[in-house]
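[Meeting: bench + compute handoff]

Bench side (C.D.) handed over the final construct sequence. Compute side (W.E.) agreed to return the predicted structure before the next meeting so the bench team could plan truncations. Sequence as handed over:
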Amino acid sequence: MTPNLYDLNSADGVRQIVAALFQGYNYRLYTEGQTRNQLLDAYRQLTAVRERLPADASHEEWMAAAEAELDDAGNDLAWWLLGLTNKTAQNLGIRRDGRLDYLEEVARHVREVSAGSPDGSFDDGMLMLWAGAATLTIRGSRKSTAGKTLERAFLRAGLTILGLEEGTDFWLNMQRDAEVPREIDVEIASRRGRIRVEMGLIERGNQEVIEDKITRVGTGGMVIFDQIGPRSNARQTAENNQVGFIQIRNNRPLTEMHGFLNDKVAKMLVEPPANTDDIVEAVGRLPDELFVSGLLPA
């Protein structure tokens, strides 16, 4: 298996992960390698910064060298050198022109803590803060952008495999209007109008997001999700509102989508592939165009 097989920057990588989702697998298993590569690159970059700063210098000399690093750093790195993510900096009200003052405060704090610890050094303490901020930034960004990329590709590929045509039988990213006050991931033509569909590759810790999607699609809509916890009421809520509730994890989501939509859409649906080989083959036949829209930036 080549490292680029599950590259979210390529149509083929997205295709492979979508095929895995159709088989009920956890997409995070297929994106973690690329995320880990980004983390390692960030840690190497931060380690290089630490090595350029004078370890045995006075506080004033260290700050002067750190100021030069801040001036040369890109956006994310400049915040990481404060031990912060960009979002945390915004929440703390730290402006760009105040970054050096904040770093001064952080550095003094770490020096005090390190002085009282027999096992730690100032440089190690700063590096740990930097690495923690980098980890939060990268994992948060990857989670958000990977989810958006895969959700769009999953919906386009899945509905196409079931025999529906984009632009005629279904429409993606429908904007809000007088009838629907919020954007909807997909609308599917049915015998009685349109079926609203929302998808979220959400884990057990964010069940409120899935419950919100049930409300958003309304009666007769469909929600596709990764998995929910055993204590969640979302499944019962969906049943009460006649919402198709399609779990991906350890399931065959294409089969369930077909079962929910088959007697509602005007067009006769194609029977979904039932086993692993057939799923992979069906996804492999789809054009690259279904997987390239919304790819992650290089």
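W.E. noted at the follow-up: The chain has a mean pLDDT of 88. C.D. will use this when planning the next construct.
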